[in-house]
Structure formats: C-alpha cells, structure tokens
Amino acid sequence: MRLQDKTAIITGGANGIGKETAILFAQNGAKVILADFDEANGAAAVEELRALGAQAHFVKADVSSSEDAEQIVAAALEQFGRVDILVNNAGITRDGFLVKMEQEQWDRVIGINLTGVFLCTQAAAKVMMAQGSGVILNAASVVAQFGNVGQTNYAATKAGVVGMTKTWAKELGPKGVRVNAVAPGFVSTNMTDKVPEKVLDAMKLQTPLRRLGQPRDIANAYLFLASDEASFINGAVLAVDGGLSF
Fold it and tell me: Which residues does NADP(+) bind (predicted)?
C-alpha cells in the first residue's frame, strides 16, 4: 500500500484521468476527497471507491472559485484530519483559432485550468506547510512546450502550470512539500470521444508507441510521484506521452 492512510484531494475526479487516479490511489490505501462540478458522476465515482473498501467523500466544486477551493480543503480536514496529496487534475478545453476565439472561451479555460490550480494549491499548501509535509501534483501537457493549433487558451494554461510548478517547488520545498507535474500526450478520455477517427489515427501516428495513452497510464505516474519512492523528486515535469515530445 504505497499511500496507506494518506489523504488525497483529486480535482476533476468524476471522470477520465481523475477518476482513474482516485481508484488507483484508493487501491493503494489512500483516503480520497473527490472534487468536481459534475455532481452525478462525482457521487457515482465515490460510491465505486467505497465499494472497493476505501474511505471517500465527494465535494461539488468549481475550482475557479476561491470559496469552493477553500471548501475542498476544509472537507478534507473535516473528514480525514489532514491533506497529504493534492492532484490538480481538473481541466477543460474550449478550442478555437486565435482570430475566432471568444473571450468567454479564453476566460473559462484560464479560470479552470490555471486559476483553479492556483486557488486549490494555495488552500492546500497552507495546511501542508503547517504539517511539514505534502505532495502537490499538477496536470500539465505536451502542448505547454509545443503548442497546438486551435488551443491558444489551453496551451497558455498548461505553460502557466509548468511555471507555477517550478516556482512552488522552490517556495514549498524547504517546508517539506514537493511539487511536480505530469505532462500527458494524447490520451483516450471523454475529451477525445468526439474527435473524428482520422484525427485520432493521426495522433497515433505522431506518437512513437503508435497508440493513445490510457487514463491508467497517467494515474500510474501520479501514484509514483505521490509515493515515498519519489521523495527526492521536486520541480519535475514528467512526460507521459508515448515518446511524442522528443
């Protein structure tokens, strides 16, 4: 049990990578706070975790709200008494070419993917610093380094997440808190469900392993970085992309 008796907050945990991470963490002994604005799927995910014998609790939250971010951390303290791990997984896309992108598309993606990471980390870091220990894991992306057509907003957030990760690793490291990021490549999630088959085939061809990643591939990376096996890893951005980024 690599996370035995650890309390983990996972944002965006109702579906996809977040849900898979919650399941894997629970299987490794973690107590899980699952936060998402998708109440139906979030509550269902918590019931799945409890069926596995895990202690789990759902919080309906919009991470772009400072009040909701504080509520997530408060729920962890109320339910389990501490915060050991924060996985900033919540993220959305609102794609569009630069000259056609509406400000609402920009603002919403920035709000969830960047401001949300800032607010949740700010709330959790205060608790972790007082404890003298903790792990913060952020969802970056290969597009932070390479960009992607139609994703000005998304690429900007993921580049920002990388910058924040490295900054926080320097700020919080002396307090016993490690901060790292995972940068997925093309992963089969609900975000790719509506992508045309020929586009998916092109994604696979760009990836040396010639397949899309699965949510468990990313969850495995989060598990490693959250565990004591990664106790000397701080400020890293781990590419989990099938070789796409080299």
Answer: 89, 154-158
**What residues act catalytically?**
154
Q: Was 89 annotated as part of a binding site?
A: yes
Annotated ligand binding at 154? The verdict is yes
CATH number for 7-188+215-236 (one of 3.20.20.140, 3.30.1360.120, 3.40.50.720, 3.40.50.300): it is 3.40.50.720
Q: Tell whether residue 156 is among the known ligand binding residues.
A: yes
The yes-or-no verdict on residue 200 having pLDDT over 90 is no
SS3 labels along the chain? CCCCCCEEEEECCCCHHHHHHHHHHHHCCCEEEEEECCHHHHHHHHHHHHHCCCCEEEEECCCCCHHHHHHHHHHHHHHHCCCCEEEECCCCCCCECHHHCCHHHHHHHHHHHHHHHHHHHHHHHHHHHHHCCEEEEEECCCHHHHCCCCEHHHHHHHHHHHHHHHHHHHHHHHHCEEEEEEEECCECCCCCCCCCHHHHHHHHHHCCCCCCECHHHHHHHHHHHHCHHHCCCCCCEEEECCCCCC
